[in-house]
């Protein structure tokens, strides 16, 4: 291959790497930060804990996008690939745009760039506008770290207002499946810094995060198990899941049923008789477990001595 062919080949490769893409219908610049985010952050959790800090993990990624990066786009002109240098990017540019109240180009940056910028001083309307760019866009590059980095900068009051705005303006059915999980994890990570009593769990999971509950998974439930939740707080969370029961798929219902057993057993949660405890903690999920699970939770002897009432426990009454 001659020198001329080598140069042409390198130019084409560069054009592909820095090709233009669309975010919410707008042509934007594919920067080196975007390429890194799309190829590196997926599954890049560094901690094996039940509740990993995705925000802390994400901060290690910010070292690759801080400072000033030169971004490019590529285009075809007269059947030849050309490279055109574009605007230089820095996090201070993002902050300056937002400070001036300029949201016209709010969707023109990558989500990781926003996560690595200083957003703590901005109101809920700005944060909600940023999140709207990515929640429903199946072509946008998102990651758990990006969501967590953004939401970790918010106080609980601002986060609450953000969720209220999103619940009003964004249809849950339009949010991509991955982003539903990312939001649940990111909000929970923010809330973990405070006191997760029954009131807090009820407010957030029965109201603010209700529409996201169908995306609940074993990892999130395991994280909740590892937290210092009281039985009352756990009941408030289970009540939220029970209200969303009809929206959960069968696999999720079974996962939740098993999780309830683990939570109740680990904390020795009891309210009244065994029958009353089952009704209070398992609720609709009683149909998604078997007697063996209940025996492990409450003890086989207690189940035998329990007086089942078919109208209260139609599933369990068949296994007396």
What can you see in these coordinates?
With 320 residues, this protein is mostly helical. The protein has a domain at 196-320. It is built from 16 helices and four strands. The chain has helices at 3-17, 32-40, 54-62, 91-99, 111-116, 124-135, 144-151, 156-169, 177-191, 198-208, 218-226, 231-243, 250-267, 274-282, 291-298, 300-305, and strands at residues 21-23, 26-28, 69-77, 80-89. It has a two-stranded antiparallel sheet with strand order 1-2. Strands 3-4 form a two-stranded antiparallel ribbon. α6 crosses α8 (156-169) and α7 (144-151) runs parallel beside α9 (177-191). Mean pLDDT is 78; it is low at 4-48, 66-73, 77-88 and 308-313.
- Which class of secondary structure composition applies to the elements? mainly alpha
The fraction of residues in strands falls at 5-15%
Q: What's the total number of strands?
A: 4
In whole angstroms, the N-to-C terminal distance is 81 Å
Mean pLDDT, all residues: 78
Which series of helices and strands comes N to C?
Answer: HEEHHEEHHHHHHHHHHHHH
- The largest sheet has its strands arranged as 1-2
Principal-axis shape = elongated
- What Rg, in angstroms, do the CA atoms define? 25 Å
Poorly predicted tracts of residues: 4-48, 66-73, 77-88, 308-313
> What percentage of residues falls in helices of 4 or more residues?
40-55%
Kindly report the oligomeric state of this protein.
Answer: single chain
Looking at this protein, list some descriptive labels.
320 residues, mainly alpha, two-stranded antiparallel ribbon, elongated
């Amino acid at each position: 291959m001659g020198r001329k062919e080598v140069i042409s080949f390198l130019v084409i490769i560069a054009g592909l790497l820095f090709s233009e893409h669309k975010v919410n219908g707008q042509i934007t610049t594919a920067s080196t930060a975007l390429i890194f985010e799309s190829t590196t952050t997926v599954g890049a959790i560094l901690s094996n804990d039940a509740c990993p800090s995705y925000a802390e993990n994400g901060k290690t990624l910010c070292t690759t996008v801080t400072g000033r990066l030169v971004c490019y786009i590529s285009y075809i002109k007269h059947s030849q690939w050309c490279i055109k240098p574009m605007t230089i990017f820095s996090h201070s540019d993002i902050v300056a745009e937002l400070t001036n109240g300029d949201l016209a180009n709010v969707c023109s940056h990558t989500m990781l760039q926003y996560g690595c910028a200083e957003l703590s001083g901005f109101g809920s309307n700005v944060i909600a506008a940023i999140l709207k760019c990515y929640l429903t866009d199946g072509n946008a590059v998102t990651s758990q770290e990006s969501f967590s980095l953004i939401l970790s900068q918010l106080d609980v009051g601002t986060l609450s207002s953000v969720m209220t705005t999103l619940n009003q303006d964004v249809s849950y059915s339009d949010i991509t499946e991955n982003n539903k999980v990312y939001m649940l994890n990111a909000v929970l990570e923010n809330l973990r810094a405070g006191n997760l009593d029954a009131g807090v769990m009820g407010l957030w999971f029965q109201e603010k995060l209700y529409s996201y509950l169908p995306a609940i998974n074993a990892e999130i439930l395991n994280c909740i198990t590892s937290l210092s939740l009281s039985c009352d707080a756990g009941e408030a969370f289970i009540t939220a899941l029970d209200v969303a029961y009809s929206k959960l798929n069968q696999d999720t219902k079974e996962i939740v049923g098993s999780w309830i057993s683990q939570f109740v057993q680990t904390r020795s949660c009891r309210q009244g008789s065994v029958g009353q405890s089952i009704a209070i903690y398992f609720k609709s999920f009683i149909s998604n477990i078997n007697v063996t699970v209940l025996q492990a939770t409450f003890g086989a002897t207690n189940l035998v001595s329990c007086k089942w009432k078919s109208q209260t426990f139609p599933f369990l009454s068949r296994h007396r």
